[in-house]
Amino acid sequence: MRVISVTWRCDNFSRVMMAVAVDISRFEGVPMAPPDPILGVSEAFRADKNDLKLNLGVGAYRTEELQPYVLNVVKKAENLMLEKGENKEYLPIEGLAAFNKATAELLFGADNPVIKQGRVATLQSLSGTGSLRLAAAFIQRYFPEAKVLISSPTWGNHKNIFNDARVPWSEYRYYDPKTVGLDFEGMIADIQAAPDGSFVLLHGCAHNPTGIDPTPEQWEKIADVIQEKKHMPFFDVAYQGFASGSLDEDASSVRLFVERGLEVFVAQSYSKNLGLYAERIGAINVVCSAPEVANRVKSQLKRLARPMYSNPPIHGARIVANVVGDPVMFGEWKQEMEEMAGRIKNVRQKLYDSLSAKDKSGKDWSFILRQIGMFSYTGLNKTQSDNMTDKWHIYMTKDGRISLAGLSLAKCEYLADAIIDSFHNIS
Ligand code: KET
């Protein structure tokens, strides 16, 4: 730092000397931000030099060899795209038309009357996060009095997204640690108690982080209360196909609300099910009561997107449009998705078996088998999760969530040892 002397006169005219740094940064007032609770875990993992290290933090699929996986069908679609030699012109603000059509059809079903009637405003956006953020900006602008209800717990970034958009939120009960299941009564009571017209954020399937979804009967009851209270259902669908292995079955919660004639928000992501994490491809869909309403809503979503990021990227949109739009590739995708979901089920089973065999305390670990999707919510608290990382080099989020998509069969026993040690020896 360069330092100069400044001299000035005080009241008694004695000369005072003082050293002042002239090139103090204009950013002195900017404090260091804390690491992100999920993506920060990957940064810490990369810095660890221990051979035993295991990254179960971020929900990203790995092969049995713990390597990132590009789906064969994605490579095939990309090769076709290269052969066609398509250009890289700007997309319209709303994104690629073929993608928007494909994504809405995948979500609602191609024969759904809302599509046929033109009642869905679909905008390609920056994957799930960007789509949620765009919808949050829309809520802030057109429903400034409304509150968003989010599940307790939820995906770590939901609170960030609504805070950032200055949309007030509160939590509804969801997870019951006593039963390691859904607190359905608590959930219904809290949705019922919220001011009429609130937005209710729901995980379409494979709830993150708990891996616990309502049953079809419970979804009906949730829809009853939301309808009665004139709330707005707002679905986050980041795992379509990853919960049951079936794209249609995993969209059934959303479709149930749509069949009732409700207006619904749905954010979609292709990060997990097509493994397009870094392509940032997803969409925001708003089901409206009439085509004319959908047009107006879409026009305002475009208006919000334009100053934020102008228009979305094309590469991932073309991949999705090609895969979903081609019956052969669509079939291949479903098969690969089943394989990914199958591998996760296998490690889930092996982890359960290892824990049950090794843990002599009689603790019931069967909740692991009841949870679905990419994650297991272990019930480990923050100190125990710290022990997993500090002692065992197993990286996970501090809410006790582990990503089974980052686990191999070969590592299950090691993970079981670490969980048993952390659970029984650390309080
Ligand atoms: N919703 C949920 C529920 C979700 O778990 C994620 C990502 C997203 C949306 C957004 O993903 P995107 O890539 O923006 O489409 N979750 C994993 C990654 C992350 O935190 O960003 C995770 O929970 O590990």
TrEMBL record:
Task: Name the InterPro entries for this protein.
Answer: Aminotransferase_I/II_large (IPR004839), Asp_trans (IPR000796), NHTrfase_class1_PyrdxlP-BS (IPR004838)
Can you tell which superkingdom this protein's organism belongs to? Eukaryota
Q: Outline the extent of the Aminotransferase class I/classII large domain.
A: 53-419
Could you tell me what this protein is called? aspartate transaminase
Keywords from the UniProt entry = Aminotransferase, Pyridoxal phosphate, Transferase
Organism encoding this protein: Zizania palustris (Northern wild rice)
Q: What is its EC number?
A: 2.6.1.1
- State a single Pfam family of this protein: Aminotran_1_2
User: Has keyword Transferase?
Assistant: yes
Q: Which PANTHER family match?
A: ASPARTATE AMINOTRANSFERASE, ASPARTATE AMINOTRANSFERASE, CYTOPLASMIC
Q: Which family does it belong to?
A: Belongs to the class-I pyridoxal-phosphate-dependent aminotransferase family.
Spell out the molecular function terms from Gene Ontology: L-aspartate:2-oxoglutarate aminotransferase activity; pyridoxal phosphate binding
